[in-house]
Amino acid sequence: MKWDDLRFFLAIARAGSLTAAPAELRVSQPTVSRRLAAMEARLGVRLFDRTRSGYELTAPGLEIFETVERVEGELGAVERQLSGKERRLTCTELMANLYRGPHLRSFLDHHPGIDLSVLCTFQHLNLSRREADVAVRISSSPPETLVGRRLTTTAVGVYAASDRAGQLRAMPCRNGWEWIGWQDESYSRMMITGPFPGATIRHRSDDTQAMRSMARHGMGIATLPCYVGDSDPSLRRIIDDPVPGLSPDMWVLSHPGVRRVARIRHFAEFMADTIIADRDLFEGKRPQG
Fold it and tell me: How much is the pTM?
């Protein structure tokens, strides 16, 4: 079996349709359809069920998919080990801007032969396809296909501009507070109106950095990760304790196939150690300066 055939198979399985897979493969839809049909004919087994919602893996197809993904990860490890000195870290933009910069510089000072790419995104990049080498992810249930360590929890606090914090704390009723909420109503409900019934959301945003800036300029109260709010001298907590029930786990993750690549393993260990050293900041237990 040719690897190119398996590449087509993987693209269809991940996309779940023949309409999305061609864009990744840079071929036409009829070409993808023909390649799949030829592969199924050679194997003598149906790999996908064709349904109204798309292409779903059959039981044999799922077994092949799991094996091929594992092989893909091993091939990626070989490629990294033999050639590239570039290492790719994926994390959120907030973490890269507010926390990672000084620590990454320290790592590079001790490993001058490594070129680092920091990919800031909320999307979960595919580590088995070398979209990234190491991921720092906030999740209560990371993918079972990845390996890594749970490092800490990421507490959320309630923040306002420093020059307004005392006044807001002194208000007899929290219902008078004006909040900065999320554009996504379900997220606002989870972060604000759930823990604080009756909260009035005055402004909204779909970006944590924008909410931080709005709070700093006195536009309202925001729920922010404690490692963001407690690190900002222009913000102050107006409720002492973190918001209960809003502390997902933080993980450092990589694909099993790259664990034997020393540079990637050392980088993952470095990231884990630096985050654990600041565990009190992430858990909302470090006093504000």
Answer: 0.65
